[in-house]
Amino acid sequence: MNENLNSGLSEEMVLRIFTDVCEAVATLHYSQPPVVHRDLKVENILRNSKGDFVLCDYGSASTTPVDPKESKLSEVEEEIQRYTTLSYRAPEMVDLYSGKIIYTKSDIWALGCLLYKLCFFTVPFGESVLAIQNGQFTIPENSRYSKEMHSLIRYILEPDPHIRPDIYQVSSIAFQLRKMSCPVLNPSSSSVPRQLPEDNSKSAIPGKSKVASYDSKRIKWIGTFDILKKFVECDLKLDGKWSSPGGCSKKFTCYNLDISITWYPKKLNTLVFHGEESSGLVDALINVYAEAISEDDGLSNNVCVSAIHSSIATINPAVDEPEQMSNHCIKDFEQTDNHQKVSIEHDFKLGCQCKILAADLEGVSSI
C-alpha cells in the first residue's frame, strides 16, 4: 500500500486482495470447529511469490465463542484488548454489556474495516468506540470507487452480528463485482440479497443523522444526580469516580476522547460536556437511546429508564446562527403495560436541538 499512497489502489486490485483474504477467512470459518482469526487487518496481509495475497499472524486465533452473559466481563475485556486491534473491533466486542456472542461475525466486521482501508487508506471508525457501536462512518466525497463497492462496505459493516452477513455472502458479492464465480462454499445455505444497501450519499451512512461540530454541549436534565449517573454510565466508561451530587467538574476519557463533564445541580440541573468532539458524543448518545427505546421488546437492561422518565434538551449557547440542517426523525415507543407513548424527536434545524419529549408519564416535566 505504501507504493500507492499517492495514486491509491484500483478497484480491480482492491477486489483481488479482498477476495483472496475472503477465501482464507472462509477456510478458517468452515473448519471444525470454526476458527476466528480475531486480528484481521491490512498489516496481516502478505503477497507470495505467485502474486497471491495471503493471510498471516494466527497468534490471536480462537475456536471458542465468547458469550459475555456467561463469562466474567473483566476477563473477556482483557482478552479482547490483548488479541484484537481497536479500529477493527466489532460492536459486540466494544460493548460487552450488549450480551451478544462474539464469534465468526466479528471477523466479518473486521473484513469490512479492511476493505474500507484498502480503498481509502484509513479505517472507517478511527478508534472511536461510540462510532463503532453506532456503525457511523462516512464514504469520502472524492471516492474513486463504484457505488457497488460503497454498498458492499455498508453491507458488511452491519452493527448487529445477527444481521451481519457471513463469509459466503460477503465472498459471493465480492467475486460478483470481479465478474468471477465464487469458489467459497455455502454450507449454511445463506441467501445473497439481490440488492445491497443503497449508496444514497457519499458523506453519510443512510439513516444516521449528521452531527454538528461544536466545542461544547449543554444538557438541561430533569432528574436526580443518581439517575444522571445511571444514564451516563450505561454508555460511558468513566476513568475515575463520580463526585457528590453537590456539584462537580471532572475530566475523563470517553471512547478515546478527552471530555470534561460539569454538573450544576443548582442551575436548573445543567450538565455541560466540553471537548473537541463532545457535541457529536451527546448527539450520538441521544441517537442510541432513541433507537433503543423504540425496540419492540421495550426497555432492555442496557437502556436506562431515565431516557423515558426525563426530558432532555441539548443546546449550544455559543452559536448565534446555528447551522441549518434538514435531518428530522420522530420515533414512537409504546409501553406494553399501560400503552403510554413517548416520542423522540431529533430536530437539527434550530440550534442543533435534540429533544426527548415524554407524554402522559407521571412526574415528567417537558422542556
Automatic annotation (TrEMBL):
<dbReference type="InterPro" id="IPR051744">
    <property type="entry name" value="AP2_assoc_SerThr_kinase"/>
</dbReference>
<dbReference type="GO" id="GO:0004672">
    <property type="term" value="F:protein kinase activity"/>
</dbReference>
<keyword id="KW-0808">Transferase</keyword>
<dbReference type="InterPro" id="IPR000719">
    <property type="entry name" value="Prot_kinase_dom"/>
</dbReference>
<dbReference type="GO" id="GO:0005524">
    <property type="term" value="F:ATP binding"/>
</dbReference>
<keyword id="KW-0418">Kinase</keyword>
<dbReference type="InterPro" id="IPR011009">
    <property type="entry name" value="Kinase-like_dom_sf"/>
</dbReference>
<dbReference type="Pfam" id="PF00069">
    <property type="entry name" value="Pkinase"/>
</dbReference>
<protein>
    <submittedName>
        <fullName>AP2-associated kinase 1-like</fullName>
    </submittedName>
</protein>
